[in-house]
């Protein structure tokens, strides 16, 4: 399959085309982010977000530009947004005047927070159970058992890129279920 053909098929929601594009460009986007972030986990998270956003917005892709350039631009913008959020958080928590004492923030959840968290978790688990079993399994392994992609790959006896695509698809379907409910 050629890239242009894969893009055309992906615009028609062809999962094999999405997988082809992910396999073809994963290393390029990941390497780009690894140079920027100097952190494997951050690079991987941003790369996943990049493909998720790109696949959601594939209809907006302009054939006049290279697909790789489009992906890298999306990836760069996601990274910039994350850095801005981090800076904003740091600026909001710091004090300009040294005469002020620093308040120690109690991060422990209040009883109300605990109840809300339990209710949200219960709702999330109910929504996860609406997914097909193979999607439930990959979400469970990644987010509840906190396995790496490599460990999930070994567990499921599937290539790591299949795991990434399956997880990406599971998250997208779960988001649709949550929005509907």
Account of the 3D structure:
The structure is a single chain. The model has no long low-confidence stretch (mean pLDDT 87). It contains eight helices and no strands. The chain has two domains: 3-93, Rna Polymerase Sigma Factor, Chain: A, CATH 1.10.1740; 111-180, Arc Repressor Mutant, subunit A (Orthogonal Bundle), CATH 1.10.10. The chain has helices at 3-11, 15-37, 40-56, 67-93, 111-128, 133-144, 149-156, 160-180. Helix 2 packs antiparallel against helix 3 (40-56), helix 2 crosses helix 4 and helix 7 crosses helix 8 (160-180). The chain is globular and about 55 Å long. The chain starts with a helix and ends with a helix. It is mainly α.
Number of domains: 2
Which term fits the overall shape?
A: globular
Q: Helical residue percent? A: over 70%
Rg, please? 20 Å
Structural class: mainly alpha
Return the CATH class of the largest domain: Mainly Alpha
* Distinct helical segment count: 8
Distance from N terminus to C terminus (CA atoms, Å) equals 38 Å
Order of helices and strands: HHHHHHHH
Mean pLDDT over the residues: 87
CATH architecture grouping of the largest domain: Orthogonal Bundle
Q: Find the count of extended strands (DSSP E, 2+ residues).
A: 0
**What share of the residues does DSSP label as strand, in percent?**
under 5%
CATH topology type of the largest domain? Rna Polymerase Sigma Factor, Chain: A
> Which superfamily, in CATH terms, is the homologous superfamily of the largest domain?
RNA polymerase sigma factor, region 2, helix turn helix motif
Main β-sheet description: none
Uncertain residue segments: none
Pfam family, one: Sigma70_r4_2
Keywords: Sigma factor, Transcription, Transcription regulation
Domain RNA polymerase sigma factor 70 region 4 type: 124-174
GO molecular function, one term: DNA binding
């Amino acid at each position: 399959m050629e890239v242009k053909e894969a893009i055309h098929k992906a615009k028609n929601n062809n999962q094999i085309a999405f997988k082809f594009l992910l396999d073809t460009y994963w290393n390029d986007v990941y390497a780009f982010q690894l140079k920027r972030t100097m952190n494997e986990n951050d690079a991987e998270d941003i790369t996943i977000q990049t493909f998720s956003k790109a696949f959601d917005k594939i209809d907006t892709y302009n054939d006049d530009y290279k697909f790789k350039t489009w992906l890298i631009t999306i990836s760069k913008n996601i990274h910039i947004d994350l850095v801005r959020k981090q800076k904003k958080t740091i600026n909001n928590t710091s004090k300009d005047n040294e005469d002020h004492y620093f308040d120690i923030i109690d991060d422990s959840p209040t009883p109300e927070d605990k109840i809300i968290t339990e209710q949200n978790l219960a709702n999330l688990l109910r929504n996860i159970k609406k997914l097909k079993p193979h999607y439930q399994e990959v979400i469970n392994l990644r987010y509840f058992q906190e396995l790496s992609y490599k460990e999930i790959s070994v567990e499921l006896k599937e290539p790591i890129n299949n795991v990434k695509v399956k997880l990406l698809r599971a998250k997208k379907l779960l988001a649709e279920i949550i929005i509907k409910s």
